[in-house]
Model the fold of this input.
Amino acid sequence: MSTQTFAEKIAKAQDFLPIHGTDYVELYVGNAKQAAHYYKTAFGYQSVAYAGPETGVKEFASYVLQQGKIRLVLTTALKSDHKIAEHVRKHGDGVKVLALWVEDAYSAFEETTKRGAKPYMEPVTIEDEFGSVRMSGIYTYGETVHMFVERKAYSGPFMPGYRAWTSDYNPENAGLLYIDHCVGNVGWNRMNDTVKWYEEVMGFVNILSFDDKQINTEYSALMSKVMSNGNGFSKFPINEPAEGKKKSQIEEYLEFYEGEGVQHIAVATANILETVKTLKSRGVEFLGAPPEAYYEMMHNRVGEIDEEVAQLKELGILVDRDEEGYLLQIFTKPVEDRPTLFFEIIQRKGAQSFGAGNFKALFESLEREQELRGNL
Ligand code: FE2
Done:
């Protein structure tokens, strides 16, 4: 294990692309109206903004939801020949945009395309009565896009083109605070190129690496590398499948997403016990709890923790420790019928890592689900 802290590692990242954090995550979905209801009801997101025919947008409808600092945008096409419809036909519901809140959207585009990024959207300035937003975009893995959003001159609900969306239905939030990391799955032998892309194009650094010797079960294996920007606000772990006796969860994802894409979004809470209880009561489905032995060995593995092991066991929450502290985490089942995108709920108590000590328990749990689907 390296003796450098994460702070020391990320200090090496280049600052030609100052990022303040995630601006929004946009999913292209088959029915945004119903998806918005699901994210409000099940996860406790609040209605923020809307764009669609009523606001002069003819080709799509888009709902903006928020909880803590997490902004989700759910967008659907209104006609079959639109590129959003094509995206959904191929990939199913999934993440199209990981938008980054930047200091300067024009220079973000210039600096990244100069370093080899494939353009998605040339820089534009859009305006309404609340001010202006400057944005641009580039492709990352698969058909996934990083938008650069600069909003220092804007005070509206989301951005020009959207109007405030108020609803009579406002379920309680579930204590979700911010996006901790967003994980991408890439194809065979694509890890090194993707890591190099984040280093060269985005100025990110690789802060953690796991090979297939470290991440494996009896049946399958994968490799994972975590890329971070200079302030640590944007962390993008990348997974690649590895050879195993049976099909890995990454291969299953690639097959059903029909390409590379976002595997999971980790959202942070300050009280995972309460958050998970709330989410479960509202119908969010989580992966099965690890076996009894996992909790029996917990004290030996992670030492003293503030939470009661019995409570963690009841909810199926996983715990891991690194040099800087510990973390608690749990993973939902995929939120679509295709075994693709899922969410992680994470509470950090000092630890800045990603739960490597839980990988085995997690993947065994995933494999039980894969087996039920006939995909192992
Ligand atoms: Fe994660």
Remarks:
- The chain has eleven helices and 17 strands.
- Residues 359-372 form the longest helix (14 residues).
- Residues 60 and 77 are 4 Å apart (CA to CA).
- The radius of gyration is 20 Å.
